[in-house]
TrEMBL record:
Domain of life of the source: Eukaryota
Region described as Disordered: spans on this chain: 504-525
Pfam families: HA (PF03457)
Domain Helicase-associated: 93-157, 163-227, 233-297, 314-378, 384-448, 461-524
Gene3D superfamilies linked: 6.10.140.530
Protein name as annotated: Helicase-associated domain-containing protein
Length: 525
């Protein structure tokens, strides 16, 4: 009876192993991975994760052979769950394809893709795609794959609906130019005139760094369409041409009072030129001054003897300039804060006058004053100066830490880094941002990560490389890569081995070629 009892126990112990051999785990793995590969789109965001989860699960099966019956049952349940998930994913893809076909039909019928939000089905679907695109730009999880995005864009899908109305009026402007030969639409010309006026205002806001609906992309498109950002410049050019014709006919530029519009314009240029020479506020830009001097304007044409009032103003400016030089001698720079009394206000005034000069407005800055201020290191654009200072800080951070992922808790630099990412998202949406192409390139060259997704990938890559260095050290000390599970690298090595072997067999895995090469260099298997 004792022998019979022992035979019964042995049978109970062996049965699970016999049953396990009837359902090979390797076959279950291959079938499941093939099903994932065949039925899911190649760019589906979750299929690789599902595959690795199954691979990891089956790996745990091999490690739990003492409980074969329960493990086999759990494996079959896992396959059933995977099949159910596959069914849901296939159904979701079919629904998406159906909506895309509806969108194509809408375009054939209406000639555009502006589906009204009142359409509960197609309109709601279009809104969802735009919401998914926003998540994609922010580096967050989304069902909008590269393939889906390409399919929508091939139809002419516009991700930002506010851009549609803008482009429609741009087409109206192009028609106006064909009809009139220019884009200087008067403000009184209805909707188009008001729109043109608004574009100029928004452009100046953008140039100042203020919030604006104007973007670099829109500005480039307007310029390409022949948009005139400063209509007064066209008027100046036209009158300059008339002055050249006058000089060719008469041999001089002494325009009399009987030459109509040319007389009034010539008088205004004389006055602006004289004021500029006297150091008084003047709308005369350096470019216009050079153009007038090329045709014959010269200081000797005018009585430039300075009045007592003008002389005092000039002396006052020179006094402030001397104080600025003393400030630099004491503090090492000329970035006087606005709170620093008269000198601070004077410095701010010089920056404002430079802005006026660039815009062609009346300015007290002469060419000589610009040179004097630049000589002592005057900062004309404080926003650019501050940005460059922060950029130098992140360069230093990169040198010390090997990356640019400054945590937001790091203080001012952390906040600045987060702000750059926010500006990057705005730029990708075509909205106004002070993140210029030059700034973006400078940060990208430094290895700056623009989205959360990039930041996570960068952090994961650093962690992987750190673990690889530890594995190299282990291999040098022991002569092999058989790290026990109890070691700090145990679980990591097991996961790498599963992915490494899957990659060698041609099965999709998260093992990149670079990582695989590194592991092969230390005889990893």
């Amino acid at each position: 009876s004792t022998q019979a009892s022992n035979r019964s126990k042995a049978t109970r112990i062996r049965q699970p192993h016999m049953a396990r051999s009837n359902v090979p785990m390797r076959l279950v793995l291959i079938i499941t991975l093939c099903a994932l590969f065949v039925f899911l789109p190649c760019d589906h965001p979750t299929w690789q994760v599902d595959a690795l989860q199954v691979a990891s699960f089956l790996s745990s099966i091999r490690a739990a052979r003492d409980d074969g019956t329960k493990t086999r049952l759990a494996a079959l349940h896992a396959v059933a769950r995977s099949n159910k998930s596959l069914g849901k994913l296939k159904a979701g893809q079919a629904r998406w394809d159906g909506r895309l076909e509806q969108l194509r039909q809408f375009r054939r019928e209406h000639g555009h893709l502006n589906v009204p939000s009142s359409d509960p089905e197609l309109g709601g679907w279009v809104t969802t795609q735009r919401a998914m695109h926003i998540r994609w730009e922010a580096g967050k999880g989304t069902t909008l794959t590269d393939e889906r995005r390409a399919q929508l864009e091939s139809l002419g899908f516009v991700w930002d609906p506010t851009d549609l109305a803008w482009r429609k009026i741009l087409e109206d402007l192009s028609r106006y130019r064909v009809e009139h030969g220019h884009c200087s639409v008067p403000h009184s010309y209805g909707t188009l005139g008001r729109w043109v006026h608004t574009q100029r205002l928004e452009y100046h806001k953008m140039m100042r760094g203020d919030d604006s609906t104007m973007t670099e992309v829109r500005a480039a498109e307007l310029s390409e369409a022949g948009f005139e950002w400063d209509p007064r410049q066209r008027q100046f050019d036209e009158m300059m041409e008339r002055l050249r014709e006058f000089k060719e006919e008469r041999g001089h530029i002494r325009v009399g009072s009987k030459e109509g519009k040319l007389s009034g314009w010539f008088y205004r240029q004389q006055r602006a030129y004289r004021d500029l020479l006297d150091g008084l506020p003047s709308p005369m830009t350096l470019e216009r001054k050079a153009a007038l001097e090329e045709i014959g304007f010269a200081p000797k044409m005018f009585n430039t003897t300075l009045s007592v009032k003008t002389t005092k103003k000039k002396e006052k400016w020179e006094d402030s300039y001397e104080k600025l030089k003393l400030y630099k001698k004491e503090f090492g720079h000329v970035n006087v804060p606005q709170t620093d009394g008269k000198l601070g206000r004077w410095v701010r005034h010089q920056r404002q006058q430079m802005t006026n000069l660039k815009k062609g407005k009346r300015s007290t800055l002469t060419e000589e004053r610009v040179k004097l201020l630049s000589y002592v290191g005057f900062v004309w654009d404080m926003k650019e100066f501050k940005w460059q200072k922060k950029f130098e800080e992140i360069q230093q951070y990169h040198e010390e830490n090997g990356h640019c992922n400054v945590p937001q808790s790091y203080g001012e630099l952390g906040d600045w880094v987060e702000t750059q990412r926010e500006q990057f998202v705005l730029k990708k949406k075509g909205r106004n941002t002070w993140l210029t192409n030059e700034r973006e390139d400078a940060l990208s060259d430094l290895g700056f990560t623009w989205t959360r997704g990039e930041q996570i990938r960068s952090r994961n890559e650093r962690r992987w490389n750190n673990n690889f260095e530890k594995l190299k050290k282990f291999q040098n000390e022991t002569g092999n890569c058989s790290v026990p599970l109890t070691h700090e690298l145990g679980n990591w090595v097991r996961n790498q081995r599963a992915q490494f072997r899957a990659a060698k067999r041609g099965i999709q895995s998260s093992m990149t070629e670079g990582r695989r090469s590194k592991l092969e260099s230390i005889s990893f298997d």
